[in-house]
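User: For my dataset I need records formatted as: sequence, then C-alpha cells, nothing else. Please produce one.
Assistant:
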Amino acid sequence: MTTHPSIEQHPDLAEMRSRFERATSTPRGQAIETLGLLTGLYLAASPWIAGFSGLTALAVCNLITGIAYALCMGGFGSAYERTHAMAWAACAIGAWTIISPWVVAGNVDTTRTVVNNVIVGAVALVLGLAMAAAAGRSGGGARRRGAPGPVREP
C-alpha cells in the first residue's frame, strides 16, 4: 500500500506560503492592509456619513461591498498566504464601487453618490492593486535571479 504525503507537505506550497507571508509582514504590506480595512469600513458606512442613506438600493450595495472589501483586505491578514487571490477580488470590488451609482436599480446617481463612490472605489482599486503587486513582487524572486526551476526528467 502506497501512502502519499498530504498537500501541506508539498515544497511548492510551503514556498508559496512563506512568499505571501513575507509580502504581508513588511511595513508596506501592513499599511496597505490597514488602509484597505479602513476603506472597507468607510465604504460600508458611507451612505450614512455622506448622507445618501435614503437611497436604499445604493446604501445596501455599499454596506455589503464595504464589508466584503474589509474582509478581503483586512480580515484575512493572518491567512493571506492561502487567500492571496483576495487582493484581486478587492480590485473587482473597487471597480464595482466606481460604477455602482449608474448600475444599481433606481435613480441613485446623484452628485453626492457619484463623488463618494468614485473616490472610494478608486482608493479601493489602488489598494487592491498594491496588495496584489506586493504579493507578486515577493514571489518568484529566486527564480528571477537565476536559480534553477523545477527539474524535468526525460
